[in-house]
Amino acid sequence: MGLMMRGLASIARPIGRFLYPPVCAGCGGAVSEAAALCPACWRTMRFIERPYCEVLGLPFSFDLGRGFLSAEAIAEPPAFARLRAAVIYRDLASRLVASLKYSDRTDLVPLMAGWMARAGAELLDDAEVVVPVPLHSGRLFRRRFNQSAELARAIARRRRLDFAPTSLVRVRSTRSQVGLGPEERRTNVRGAFQVRPERDDAVRGRRVLLVDDVFTTGATVSAATRALKRAGAREVDVLVFARVASGGG
Ligand SMILES: [Zn+2]
Question: pLDDT (tens digit, 9 = 90+) per residue, 113-145?
């Protein structure tokens, strides 16, 4: 636990230490190292560990042994091969996501990407290229940066993997998924993604790791996965920072 709490502090420390005393990414209280949580905030994070569904990364409440799948993964096998998430989407985890998305808290990226790289270690071992879920260009302009791309960039850099932030694009504007039911979400993002033909060499024939911040119903990453496969991706795994505790598909 101590090892994880340190995150990527060692990189930022030499310069940052004197300019900005390290504060907890959750509450702003004093901590000894940069890119860390204080013990009280740490206890509120629900890190996802085995046992979980090998396909959907959905935690099981008891251990059935390696290789078991959730009822959701059996009833409705996803387009992607495997999903892993660092934490359950609630409490502080959801506030960290909102801070990164709407407040441009890029200082959170090393911490969140560090936890994701740990949760997705097996996926990263197999990945050949890291691709973020893109924002629509209009939204990117308004919001200035794509939080999923920032997480994906940091993860690719840690593992020295190819990073392809411009291959997958949104070809039509979609409504925010917030407040939509599962079927509405699927309809909303159907056909929304495409790999740009002039950039498809980044994914063709390769094992792709698709990165997003949050997994709720899976409609977005499923639509993005299908677009990557249409462009010739050999296989697609998905790594997110946080996922809802139940559901899937
Ligand atoms: Zn704190």
Answer: 999 999 999 999 999 999 999 987 666 556 567
Which tokens hold the place of 88? Answer: 């359950």
Cα 41 to ligand 1 centroid, rounded to whole Å:
4
Residues of the chain with CATH 3.40.50: 48-243
Q: Tell me the whole-structure pTM to 2 decimals.
A: 0.86
The alpha carbon of 177 and the centre of ligand 1 are apart by a number of angstroms equal to 30
**How many angstroms does the Cα of residue 210 sit away from the middle of ligand 1?**
30
- Quickly name the fold that domain 48-243 has: Rossmann fold (3.40.50)
Q: Residue 198 gets which letter from DSSP?
A: G
34 alpha carbon – ligand 1 mean position (Å): 12
Mapped onto helix, strand or coil, the DSSP state of residue 210 is: strand
